[in-house]
Amino acid sequence: MAKPMHDTPMLDQLESGPWPSFVTGLKRLAKDNDMMVDLLGQLETSYETRKGYWKGGTVGVIGYGGGIIPRFTELKDEDGNPLFPEAAEFHTLRVMPPPGMHYDTNTIRKMCDIWEKYGSGLIAFHGQSGDIMFQGCSTDNVQPAFDEINEMGFDLGGAGPAVRTGMSCVGAARCEHSCFDEGRTMRMLVNNALDDMHRPALPYKFKYKVSGCPNDCMNSVQRADLATIGTWRDDMKVDQEEVKAFVAKHGRKYVIDNVITRCPTQALALNDDDTLEVNNKDCVRCMHCINVMTKALAPGDDKGVTLLCGGKRTLKIGDLMGTVIVPFHKLETDEDFEWLEELATEILDFFAENALEHERTGEMIERIGLVNFLEGVGLEVDPNMISHPRMNPYVRTDGWDEEVAKWEARKAEA
Amino acid sequence: MSEPRMPIESGVPEMDPYLHPVLKKNYGNWKWHDRPRPGVLHHVAHSGDEIWTVRAGTQRQMDVYTIRKLMDIADEYAEGYVRFTIRSNIEFMVSEESKVQPLIDKLTEEGFPIGGTGNSVSMISHTQGWLHCDIPGTDASGAVKALMDDLYEEFVKEEMPNRVRITTSCCQINCGGQGDIAINIQHTKPPKIDHSQVANVCERPSVVARCPVAAIRPAMVNGKPSLEVDEKKCICCGACFPPCPPMQINDPEHSKFAIWVGGKNSNARSKPTFHKLVAAGVPNNPPRWPEVSEIVMKILKAYKEDAKDWERVGEWAERIGWPRFFEKTGLPFTKYHIDNWRGGRANLNASAHIRF
């Protein structure tokens, strides 16, 4: 336990400055943990050579096919012996936090004790997909570390071609913009798909993200295969006395420049008596005015969700935003939640059966077209799904009359 | 031999046991909020209950000693509950206003910056890098630490026109995500192939299928099945490297940083947008990446001076126009800024709208 420290002149330069230093943390761990001594040695080497030295492999826990990120060192001498043997295995356990990433101190202390016993003592709160990342574990210790974390009531998250760990915003727990129960929704979506999370067999990753309002603090439009975003369909709420108070405090020019003219659809006007006029038919629920006047304005009462499908970053075909597939649905009763659970299952199954290897939902929709996707999962077309109608004539329209009849029938039902 | 322990497939845990009692009591019933000072949120429920949240920056990768110190602070100065934001800031909730200042004082004394709320530059959301990733071109944790040292004042104050959300990524997969400013590795040379290893390690057809520009084809090299890259077609994206490690894309000299601006996830005002390339060829220069900081600070300075209240970086650039963006930031405009990927023509100016 008293392995001497390697010289780390480059990493040492990351100990200065006002922001908390992870290097100082690594060094503190290294005083009592030889794995960290050697980890610092390998990391310093990377800083010198500007190269990474980890390779993946196969490490898991009994019963699951994913959730562990295996890392083996590639820094070896001529005889194939690791240059930094204590850190030759440096695996990560991805563990799912409670929705909203809330903790009591006792739970986090227990996690620290477990990780001090079996791992390096380094924990990331949280990784980019929303997991608690227990970083730095030998192959032998992965199972006992997981067992103790699992006994605490925590489970492994996703990795590889699988349903990934979900994310939901602070939402109803502490935000007045919340339009539904984000935590319940995320938990339901992920826990309904645990088999596809823990036994990776999908074409590629599949992510659920849940944001309580269109501020979309979870970046779901850009990052989620299925984004669930809160919204409302009645009028937004205006407390005119608070509007007047806001105008009195900030001045008319401020309100005109920062609220009225910033509305993307010109749905707002400031009246002569300093009250606010809202054209709710034109309002697109962007949240800007509500964000500025938090005390005077609020979402309406008839709340629900908008669903978008297919967001992802670059690889392979380029960045894709999610596309609206359900403009509005209530999400309050058990039946509403069952509806969402069934639709999510339908989408996941369709993805599993129809996507090509290493293709995300967005790429699949790009390849087969939104209409085929909607038909596949049993959703009707809706003009809220488009920015504007098609601009080219390259389409065969001999089913026009039937489609018009469908539209009329749906309109009559509504 | 005893039966192996099978996992309890419990999934995402329930939130309730981990929620601050005031949050639990007022779940779904919050009325409004304000920010008494940078780093502090004050929420008021319909019940009249109030909660103050103090937000502090962390290094994300934390040793257990740092975490226990934060938990001690939560027990002694707050009320035993914390949460983390998507950007790895820690939040302490207290139900009495009188607890806010002592909590801030203690966190400050222990070296945790208070801020990251409202119109600040919040903590950079970042990827893993050399510390743990198997395909990294750089070390995000280090680049972020160096940059946050420079941005410290902007984290603890709320003096930007609107919030600034920065991300970094160690390869073009861009796990760091979209950002007002995104700092991402951009490879500039095709992969270097170890032909003796390809047949052993790589499933060749799936590697061929990964390439966005169909530049990879199966080939026999030195009598062994391998892959070859049409280097004229190759866009150096590195997509082939994860499924085929012998196709090394990371290069100590030629893997550079590129800087992107104008990503926005919120629907507020304008629709969500992706970030756009503004600078490339920036050296990958550990341990403190000064060239990256210099460009980021330049962009932020111009944004802070010129943007109107509530304009995000991308909205500011759209209003003043991209020619003026390059003028005001002093960044050079090159042929590489012009999009030639599929659909890229939609990003060209098809009008006579020119600012003079």
Task: Put the structure in a nutshell.
The complex is a heterodimer of chains A (414) and B (356). Chain A has helices spanning 9-12, 22-30, 34-49, 105-118, 139-151, 182-191, 194-198, 220-223, 240-250, 252-260, 288-292, 334-354, 361-368, 370-377, 400-413; strands at 54-55, 68-69, 72-73, 92-95, 102-104, 119-125, 132-137, 167-168, 208-211, 226-232, 237-238, 268-270, 276-278, 297-298, 303-309, 323-329. Chain A is of the alpha+beta class.
Could you characterize the architecture of this molecule?
The complex is a heterodimer of chains A (414) and B (356). Chain A has 15 helices and 16 strands. Chain A has 414 residues and is an alpha+beta fold. Chain A has a five-stranded mixed beta sheet with strand order 8-9-10-15-16. A four-stranded antiparallel beta sheet of chain A has the order 2-4-7-6. In chain A, helix 2 crosses helix 3. The mean pLDDT of chain A is 97. Chain B is an alpha+beta fold. Chain B has three domains: 16-109, Alpha-Beta Plaits, CATH 3.30.70.3340; 129-188 and 252-340, Sulfite Reductase Hemoprotein, domain 1 (2-Layer Sandwich), CATH 3.30.413; 192-248, Alpha-Beta Plaits. In chain B, strand 5 and strand 6 (90-94) form a beta hairpin. The longest helix of chain B is centred in the middle third of the chain and has 17 residues, at 140-156. At the A-B interface, helix 2, helix 3, strand 1, strand 5 and helix 4 of A face strand 1, strand 4, helix 2, strand 5 and helix 4 of B.
